[in-house]
Specification:
By secondary structure, this protein is of the alpha/beta class. The chain is built from 13 helices and 10 strands.
Length: 317
Amino acid sequence: MLTVAVLALDGVIPFDLSTPIEVFSRTRLPDGRPAYRVRVCGLGGPVDSGAFPLTPPWGLDALADADTIIIPGCADPAAPVPPRVLGALRSAAADGTRIASICAGAFVLAATGLLDGQRATTHWLVTKRLAEAYPEVDVDPDVLYVDNGQFLTSAGAAAGLDLCLHLIRRDHGSAVAADAARLSVMPLEREGGQAQFIVHDQPPTPRGSELEPVLKWMQDNADRTLSLDDIAEQAGMSCRTLNRRFREQTGTTPLQWLLRARIRQAQHLLETTDHSVERIAGQAGFGSSTAFRERFKKIVGTSPYAYRAAFQTTEAR
């Protein structure tokens, strides 16, 4: 069982604090065992969260035993970070502990110097302030989160949930992360192409709707070259009506839905087989490996090779 330490300091944002506690505490392995133990750590004594006071059960010494440290957002990004906290974080980092921040928690992580020379993000309202306060940090305001390996940062509170799901997927694979996402009523990928590694296990399917049969047909035939006319003929609708019904019931177009189904199929093959990228491009219906690489990187945020390196199962290797 892995240990997640959540750091609680004065001014901590309650939602940013509760998100990792809730997500990691409820995550279960396939055999039903808890995947994580969660410890809320602080300087000792009560912490003012604005909404309510809380007293962390563990002190800073517990950070040394954690596999992952989460730094939640704080109400005042400019508030000085206690030297004891900076020292504890630097010491944990030196031992190889993974450290992730949510929202303005990036300011605490940046204050340690651990983000110098690395790409990072935070809430869009304060990305400029982060870049000005820590010019050695490469601040990217356009992503939900950034994974540098040992150090990770995320944007606003909802992006903190994206980050937690990403960490679960890194630790335990897609199936466990998908279960955690369902418990959180959260998709594994949000619109915008910024979710990097996190994706739906399957594209959204409105159960019991008139589109369900054609969606299943599209999934079963995703390896074929399908046009909008082909899909409309299968659905028994005009292209215009099909597009309208798709947007109403899935929030996207037929061809975008099909693209997501193909991407998910490609991810599954990259995770579970040693097939070449060229072969997977054909199996997933992309035709050429060039088109596959371009679309995969645009949607997933990384190349097929990098995705495989990060998420291929031990059995596949």
